[in-house]
Amino acid sequence: MEMFTSRSPEDTMRCAETFAEGLKPGDVVALTGDLGAGKTAFVKGIVRKICGDAQVTSPTYTLVNQYDGDTTVYHFDVYRLEDPDPDSLDWVDEYLFGDGVCVIEWAENIEAVLPADTVRVEILKDPDKGDNFREIKIC
C-alpha cells in the first residue's frame, strides 16, 4: 500500500499524475471516498498524464466520459448505480477488459463486477487537519 497526503486539489492531481506513470492499457482503478473528497481531481491528474490537457468533468449523468491520448481513459461515475444487479452490468465488460484505462468513481457501487486485479484508491478527508487535507491510499 502507498500513502500520499494532499493539501489542495492541485496536490491531488500531482499525486494522480505520479500514480498514472505506472498505468497501462487494461488497468482498472477503483476510486472511493466521500462526496467532495477529490475523486474527480484525482481523475484529472490521471487524464492529464495519459492524455494531455483535456476538459475533465464527472460523468454523473452520462455514466462514462472518454479521453483519448496515447491510451484511452474511460472515466466512470457510478454514484447513481447504488446496489445494481450484476447481470444488468454486462456492458461494463467491454470497458473493464478492454484496451483502455478505466477509472471508476464510487466503485464500491459495482464491486461485484470489478476484476480481481483492480487497483484501489481511497481518498479520505480529515477536517481536523484542514478543509483541503486528504490522505490518499493506493493498494
What this model shows, in words?
21% of the residues lie in helices and 27% in strands. The chain is α/β, with parallel strands linked by helices. A seven-stranded mixed β-sheet has the order 1-7-6-2-5-4-3, covered by helices on one side. A hairpin with an 8-residue loop joins strand 6 (119-125) and strand 7.
**How many strand elements?**
7
**CATH homologous superfamily heading:** P-loop containing nucleotide triphosphate hydrolases
- The number of distinct structural domains comes to 1
Number of helices: 3
Pattern of helices and strands: EHEHEEHEEE
Portion of residues in beta strands equals 25-35%
Strand order in the sheet with the most strands: 1-7-6-2-5-4-3
End-to-end separation: 5 Å
What is the gyration radius calculated from CA atoms? 14 Å
The first-level CATH class is given as Alpha Beta
> Which sheet architecture does the biggest sheet show?
7 strands, mixed
Instruction: Classify the helix fraction into a percent range.
Output: 10-25%
The CATH architecture assignment turns out to be: 3-Layer(aba) Sandwich
Question: Could you give the topology of this structure?
Answer:
Elements: E1 2-6, H1 9-20, E2 28-33, H2 39-51, E3 64-67, E4 73-77, H3 93-96, E5 101-105, E6 119-125, E7 134-138
Parallel strand pairs: 2-5, 2-6, 4-5
Antiparallel strand pairs: 1-7, 3-4, 6-7
Helix pairs in contact: 1-2
